[in-house]
What we know:
The complex is a heterodimer.
Chain A: H1 9-17, H2 21-42, H3 46-63, H4 73-91, H5 119-128, H6 131-142, H7 147-154, H8 158-180
Helix pairs in contact in A: 1-2, 2-3, 2-4, 3-4, 5-8, 6-8, 7-8
Chain B: H1 6-18, H2 28-100, H3 102-130, H4 133-198, H5 203-214, E1 222-225, E2 232-238, E3 241-244
Antiparallel strand pairs in B: 1-2, 2-3
Amino acid sequence: MKLTRSYTINDLMEGCKAGDRKMQEMLYKQTASxxxxxxxxxxxxxxxxxxxxxxxxIKIFQKIKEYxxxxxxxxxIRRVMVNTAIESYRKNLRSLNVVEIDEAYEQPSxxxxxxxxxxxxxxxxxQKLADGYRMVFNMYVIEGYSHKEIGETLGISEGASKSQLSxxxxxxxxxxxxxEGFGYATYTG
Amino acid sequence: xxxxxxxxxxxxxxxxxxxxxVTPSRDLWxxxxxxxxxxxxxxxxxxxxxxxxxxxxxxxxxxxxQQQNTAHPDKNLANNRTETVKPVVKANSIKDSTMVAPxxxxxxxxxxxxxxxxxxxxxxxxxxxxxxxxxxxxxxxxAPEVQKQETLTAKVDGTQQEIIKKKIEEAIQEPKKVIAxxxxxxxxxxxxxxxxxxGIRNVGDVVNLIVNKVDKRKDKFIQFRxxxxxxxxxxxxxxxFKIGKRNKK
Lengths: 189, 249
């Protein structure tokens, strides 16, 4: 990352627009680890995330001429990456029997401490979520989509998006509690 | 340890992932690179190949067209020339022959006659001097014969001249006939053009119309007979390869 500091991200953007292979590589090196973190949130595992990352960068280099400079270049790259991840999910939408309703967890009434949890732990619990829940949670919580947008993008109703988000939260909380090893008398997972 | 609000819960995740970085596998870039490269390699050659193919076809077409335009009209022109010029050449040659041929005859006559008369006169003088009658008689008898012969040959020459004159006249008249022969095929072509312009009834007419516009030669690149409603191929002319009914001379 530090090696490419002599170029600003806009220099790289211009170079990529011109199809300069070296500039493409530098842009990749400068942004790939952030983008892989994005992909990881949407994927089941690292392999799936890297597949999405690869597809995303190919798309970025193909579509870079469409970037008109509205918003930051990194933001544009991130959007392309998120869209690629969603597209990949929709393509692999084998059977969206997300999680049976009776499988859904009750929301734990107790609070817990995040202090000891790192990003990697949170990544793990997100990746454990069923595909549909993971999509809705990522899109709503991290990317800031509205339920309406999520519904349109994933082809589900706004209500379904809301209910899937609340279930996703519940599952995440339970998983975190498990991870933290807090023994709650009230909790009987 | 209090129950966490959804809002706070979400914020914790959002903050945790805001600057999250996960280092990709080392070979991921080379994968991306190879994914970009072969596509470029594949796409570009297809474009270039198709472009090259189009250019090649166009070039070959132009070459053939030019060859036909340069070689064939030349042939036609050459044919026309030989046909129209031939009689002129003939006339010239005949004229030349008539100009040359009669002159020697006259000269011969001029040359021969005096010599004979001289001989005769000398022989007469000789006979007068020697006074040998039989000889003189012989000479006298032969002299008129010779003279007669002379006149006869002159007469023959005169008829020859007449024959030559006739030949010249014929030769002069000949080109007219030949020109008429040459004109007949062109008249045919004009008629055919008219026929094709009469109206477009079928595909053959359309083809003929286009070919007539493009190909001004007598033997078209392709020609359809469109007498009936059904058009049928009547002639093809692709340089050395010709099929058609109008190949007759």
